[in-house]
Design brief:
Blueprint (H helix, E strand, L loop, with lengths): L11 E5 L12 E8 L2 E6 L3 E5 H4 L9 E4 L3 E10 L9 E4 L2 E3 L3 H9 L8 E11 L2 H7 L3 E5 L2 H6 L2 H11 L2 H4 L12
Length: 187
């Protein structure tokens, strides 16, 4: 992971500063799926919900996947990322080995025929979105640090440990963030 100053772009990650208290973004790691002059779109990677895939999509074949909270926008919509690339038509490459969306009916068929595992796909309710220049303002306010990560580190990391792990990889200037209290007023 790099700790040099980076610009937001598809495939980069946003690591929240430790005192960002908003529910969706407190100690979060957000994967940017898109960033352009119209705004930014991403998924919170480290907020699993207490919900299984088939509780949400009972009409799908059994699949032992967790559902994650993707962000505060359109929380009634399901989004997914995966490592399957062109095997899922309509997928959009986010970074090497990681893709956004695609044909959900193909995913359903792959689940039915057991051609996909939970290590290859992750599902999210909602997404994180920023209007034009909003993310840049939040970066100027030091709400986020931009970094890079590999697909496997995003999908294999324990969600409850991901923020601390990503902060530590930023280097010694950020390592103390891990020890900051979640609510400084209780200190």
């Amino acid at each position: 992971m790099e700790s040099k100053v980076l610009k937001p772009s598809a495939g980069s990650i946003l690591i929240s500063q430790p005192f960002l208290s908003e529910y969706y973004f407190s100690r979060s790691v957000v994967l940017l799926a898109d960033h352009n002059e119209d705004g930014s779109f991403g998924l919170v990677m480290n907020k699993p919900l207490d919900m299984k895939f088939n509780e949400l999509l009972a009409e799908f074949p059994h699949f032992d996947a967790k559902i994650f909270l993707g962000g505060p926008v359109k929380t009634d919509n399901l989004y997914f990322i995966h490592t399957l690339g062109e095997q899922v038509p309509g997928s959009i490459r986010i970074l090497d080995g990681l893709y956004w969306g695609g044909d959900i009916d193909v995913v359903k068929d792959m689940i039915s025929s057991q051609k996909i595992t939970t290590a290859q796909i992750r599902f999210y309710l909602g997404y994180a979105g920023w209007a034009a220049k909003q993310l840049e303002r939040e970066l100027e306010e030091y709400s986020w640090v931009i970094s890079k990560a590999k697909a496997e580190s995003l999908l294999k990391a324990r969600p409850t440990m991901m923020w601390a792990s990503m902060v530590k990889k930023l280097g010694p200037d950020y390592a103390e963030w891990v020890n900051y209290p979640i609510d400084p007023s209780l200190n």
